Amino acid sequence: MGSLYQALENGDLDAAAGMITENFIANVPSTPEPLVGRETWLLGAQGMKEAFPDLKINVLDIFGTGDKVTVLVHFEGRHQGAFQQFEATGKQVSFRSIEVYRMEGDKIAEEWVAPDLLSLMQQISLAPAGH
């Protein structure tokens, strides 16, 4: 898992894509149905790198059983490009995520992610938190 995060952090999306199955399944918040396909992951990763080009990814803990691996991860970066409805603010951000991956051999076949998007959105919104 660390090599996937390292490839993403370095912006080497081709290397990252090679670690994911062709029929990858993404279970993400706010989507009623899973998203399917390696391209889905690549689009999300590309969006993160465009919004936070200096993204740093720190694995806080990693553990697994059977074909599942759970990762507690911390993201940091400067908001330098559009992210969802927010234009670049130049603000430094920091947020955590809990991510569960299902492996097929040495490749990632499925993910369930629970990033703290509320915290991230509060950090990049133009209004101060609580207003």
Structure description:
The protein is of the alpha+beta class and 131 residues long. It is built from four helices and six strands. Strand 1 (20-27) and strand 2 form a beta hairpin. 15% of the residues are buried.
Q: What kind of sheet is the major sheet? A: 6 strands, mixed
Strand content: 35-45%
Query: What is the terminal separation in angstroms?
Result: 38 Å
Rg is 15 Å
Helix content class:
25-40%
Global geometry: globular
Q: Give the spatial strand order of the biggest sheet.
A: 2-1-6-5-4-3
**Alpha-beta content class:** alpha+beta
Number of helical segments with 4 or more residues: 4
**Average of the residue pLDDT scores:** 91
Which residues form runs of ≥5 with pLDDT under 50? none
Compressed to H and E, one letter per element, the order equals HHEEHEEEEH
Q: Give the total of beta strands.
A: 6
What is this structure, in a nutshell?
With 131 residues, the protein is of the alpha+beta class. Helices cover 27% and strands 40% of the residues.
Write the layout of secondary structure elements.
Layout: H1 2-9, H2 13-17, E1 20-27, E2 35-36, H3 38-51, E3 56-65, E4 68-78, E5 92-104, E6 107-115, H4 117-124
Parallel strand pairs: 1-6
Antiparallel strand pairs: 1-2, 3-4, 4-5, 5-6
Index terms:
131 residues; alpha+beta; six-stranded mixed beta sheet; 4 helices; globular
